[in-house]
Amino acid sequence: MVKIIREFIHEDFLTAIGTGSKALKSFKRFYLNLYTKIEKTMQYTLKRIMDTHPEWIEGLKRKCYAVNGCCAMVHKDLGPFLNEYMYQDALQILLNEQQIPYQREYYFSIEYHGKRIAHKHYIDFLIEDQIIIECKAVEKLCLEHRQQLWNYMRLTGKNIGILYNFGPIKGQSEHYYLHSDGTMYMF
Questions:
Q1: In a 3-state reduction of DSSP, which class is residue 180?
Q2: How is the chain split into domains, by residue range?
Q3: Helix H or strand E segment including 67
Q4: Segments in the chain below pLDDT 50
């Protein structure tokens, strides 16, 4: 339990208040409940599409083929270790050259209790009004990056998402398909 809590709390704070105090136990309980709530609301059933619906693979890959090629070309030409925005700018140039319809920094907002929330979310690229591309330039992709893409897909109703990491020496890409039943498929 303390291991989970330490992800949220700085180690010096835990040392300062001690491990046996009532305040710490209450604090741990609060953060464990928070962690459980986050885990439940951010949970998706994740499956490999090849294991359940291999007939979908060809169509999905065909939709993503040109975009994957553009991302790979940008990574090959610019190399690793640059700023995320440089890759996005280069990808925009290449999408224009390839005449692939897109919107950069596509924004959306959501409604809550019948009212529009003022804060807008920005998607790096929306391709042909179908495919979300989320660009990263990090050492390696992590759960938070995937959750961000998955939530964008869920909230916008766009069912194809590509998470592309330009940061490492060899580019990383992950492809997801969100089915109408809420299942997230990797392909």
A1: coil
A2: 2-41, 45-186
A3: helix 54-78
A4: 1-17, 34-41
Q: What's the CA gap between 76 and 118, in Å, rounded?
A: 39
Task: Please count the other Cβ atoms lying within 10 Å of the Cβ belonging to residue 106.
Answer: 19
Euclidean distance between CA atoms 31 and 76, whole angstroms: 43
Across 16-51, b (16+ Cβ under 10 Å) vs e yields eeeeeeeebeebbeebeeeeeeeeeeeebeeeebee
Give the C-alpha separation, 147 to 129, whole Å. Answer: 21
Distance CA 14, CA 23 (A): 11
122 close to 153: Cβ distance less than 8 angstroms: no
Class of domain 45-186: alpha beta
Q: Which two tokens stand for residue 168?
A: 């490492």
